[in-house]
Amino acid sequence: xxALALMMIVFVVLLVxxxxxxxxxxxxxxxxFLSNGTMPIxxxxxxxxxxxxxxxxxxxxxxxxxxxxxxxxxxxxRLMKFSQVVTRKMVxxxxxxxxxxxxxxxxxxxxxxxxxxxxARILGPDMTRRGYPKGYxxxxxxxxxxxxxxxxxxxxxxxxxxxxxxxxxxxxxAGLIPGILMCLALMGTVWWTSKRYHYDMPDxxxxxxxxxxxxxxxxxxxxxxxxxxxxxxxIRMGLCTSxxxxxxxVAYALLCGTLIYHELTWEGFVQALKDSVVDTGGIILIxxxxxxFSYALTVEQVPSVLGGMLLGITENPQLMMIxxxxxxxxxxxxxxxxxxxxLFTPLVLPVMQSMGVDPVHFGIIMMTIVTMGCMTPPVGTAxxxxxxxxxxxxxxxxxxxxxxxxxxxxxxxxxxFIPDVILFLPNLIYG
Length: 431
What we know:
Layout (H helix, E strand, L loop, with lengths): L2 H14 L4 H16 L5 H9 L8 H12 L4 H12 L6 H13 L6 H18 L4 H11 L10 H10 L3 H7 L1 H22 L13 H10 L1 H4 L1 H10 L5 H19 L5 H34 L2 H12 L3 H16 L4 H18 L4 H14 L8 H10 L3 H24 L2 H11 L1
Helix pairs in contact: 1-2, 2-16, 3-16, 4-15, 4-16, 5-6, 5-12, 6-7, 6-8, 6-11, 7-8, 7-21, 8-21, 8-22, 9-19, 9-20, 10-23, 11-22, 14-15, 16-19, 17-19, 18-19, 18-20, 19-20
């Protein structure tokens, strides 16, 4: 049996028994080194260290810390109030709050799972009181968090840019229009489903929000709303790199929490540091272990073989992208989104580039699809977390989530066939 075949068998077996994903890819890579016979094991150790030796990678812990700090500065309740004011007269008002809040929180948390669990705790009880079925509430809370996949500063886009050597500044800008379109698509789906099943219809006695109310509420969360724009401006004007933008984000979060909102306590700061250490440690361990696995795939020339196979199927870039999206959708149902980015970006991106597909265009689509894996059984972390908080069965969640998955898939198809939906802004700003 070849070393590559043995490595893949170990990978699948460990994945099936639900071993921690960092150990799945790390152990599979070590097995390849041990069974290869020509590669000294000390190279495996070198690959673990080398995988994290990039100045660009520093952006990850910085943005994780910035997100945890922002969540403790009083920004979340202000964004919640703004969302409630704007959606007060909409059909399915409480669920519309979830969609709009996810769009605004994308620039704060940068994590779909964090956004979904936070909203489930805050909005979930109110949704149940208003008569929404728990499966429907869980579907809305989970699927709306997908918007954070493209709204900057998305951690997934940072990892994709780091692994694929793609401009993170261009990725941040490219994610804005798809994020807004996803917000509109999901709000439309909430409106249609709520109206069809008569969920949370607006009270005629409640007045519509006035422009003055919206403006006043917007002023209270102004510093949160301007955060993603500030990052993009700093990176585009060359005042800082994407890594330095992460440090600026941390300083900005501290400024908001201490001098503007006065709600960041010492205990909150320490807890944000602890949470960031845990979050960063998990991601770094996965990235380190992926260095062994990726090295084995490169030596075995898997990228070249895969590229030849894909090009043998079709040379049409749109059809190729659909095939890759189907593959990533299936993979996302079983493998963590960060692992999908680290494993498949080096394999698939060169193939797409050879067919003339812009890496920024492909990156936004890839991030949307692999993040959607967090919302799909059997191992979707976001859907299980939300269903656990809401006390909902996975079966009910899946039944009610189908219209929302349909809206997301429709938007992905639009982005595949109309690249300017993604590329218009980065081409306009960067040239």
